[in-house]
Amino acid sequence: MAQAPALPGGFELPLEPRLPRIGSVDEVGVEERAASLARRSIKKDAKLFALDLAIRMMDLTTLEGADTPGKVAAICSKAMRPDPADPAVPSVAAVCVYPNLVPTAVERLRGSGVKVASVATAFPSGQAPLDVKLREVEEVVEMGADEVDMVIDRGAFLSGRYAKVYDEIVRVKEACGEAHLKVILEVAELGTYDNVRRASILAMAAGADFVKTSTGKLSGAATLPVTLVMLEAIRDVHEETGRKVGMKPAGGIRQAKQAVQYLVQLHETLGPDWLTPDLYRLGASSLLNDVLMQIRKEKTGRYQSPDYFTLD
How many CA atoms lie within 13 A of 215 on its CB side? Predict the structure, then answer.
């Protein structure tokens, strides 16, 4: 088993004895709390702030088999100027693409401040030998990716081989060098809130800069309750160690109303320090246009036709 990384606050695990005692999640309590926060209403000025923040936190994503350099270049243009008619609308946080399209994204985004993220480690299954996963990570970083989104081996996790999952994250983090590492749990396959909490803490202990809900390739993806479980795990690690870990819900977030609900949940659970793209992202492939339409509506009082915005 790889040696635990030295994390701020002395957060080093002997994993096997600790993980089973992390504690059970109160399923009813989590779902009631998530539902309560989702009903919170915010004023117009706060809504505009939230919509603007949601754009600045987006990872604009294309992960399709038919992706081409032309499609990635178009998405990069939109990432930099989401609404060309309104220069006040900010750029998104990052563009996320497959490894072979990283050079296209790097070239198109150079100097813009928008980061390049790439999925790696045999996305979306995570089923490949470790040396293959590490080579892929090293290659995307060499090509210029600022961020790496890895997937955990859910088969290993669900069969109780926590040390294997931990070791892989440690090795991938080392391979990332200066690039930030987002660890995707694929919560739809973990089965229980207890497993989501356990996997979140394992990933953070192994050095994840972000924990992320989903690949976006399954029908079950981010939900408010499962995201709350992960946020509470981040809070607990921060209280114990002082270390701030980021969070990324991804998959199924398509409407501006949902994005605002996630931001309210974030503020109420982790506080204003996490209201930054450095610590929170929204996985988005179809969310951006709805947010842009809501911003136009808030500013003008009228809904804009979706035809005025490019399709992603």
Answer: 23
Extract the runs of DSSP E, i.e. beta strands, from 78-192: 94-97, 115-120, 147-151, 180-184
The token pair that represents 1 in the structure block: 């088993």
Residue of 78, 115, 182, 248 marked active site: 248
Catalytic residue among 78, 133, 182, 212: 212
Identify whether 149 is a catalytic site residue. Answer: yes
Q: Which residues contact 140 (CB under 8 A, 6 or more apart)?
A: 99, 102, 118, 120, 148
Q: Which tokens is 156 given?
A: 């290993």
Question: What domains can you pick out in the chain, each with its CATH number?
Answer: 22-298 (3.20.20.70)
Paired strand residues for 247 = 211, 280
Q: Which residue in 146, 149, 153, 290 is the catalytic one?
A: 149
- Neighbouring C-beta atoms of residue 106, cutoff 10 Å: 19
Asked if 248 is an active-site residue, the reply is yes
Q: pTM for the whole thing?
A: 0.90
- Residue in 250, 258, 256 with CA at minimum distance from that of residue 289: 256
Give catalytic status of residue 278 as yes or no.
Answer: no
DSSP conformational letter for 192? S
Tens-level pLDDT at each residue, the chain (312 residues): 444 444 433 445 555 455 545 678 999 999 999 999 999 888 888 999 999 999 999 999 999 999 999 999 999 999 999 999 999 999 999 999 999 999 999 999 999 999 999 999 999 999 999 999 999 999 999 999 999 999 999 999 999 999 999 999 999 999 999 999 999 999 999 999 999 999 999 999 999 999 999 998 887 778 999 999 999 999 999 998 899 999 999 988 999 999 999 999 999 999 999 999 999 999 877 899 999 999 998 888 766 655 555 555
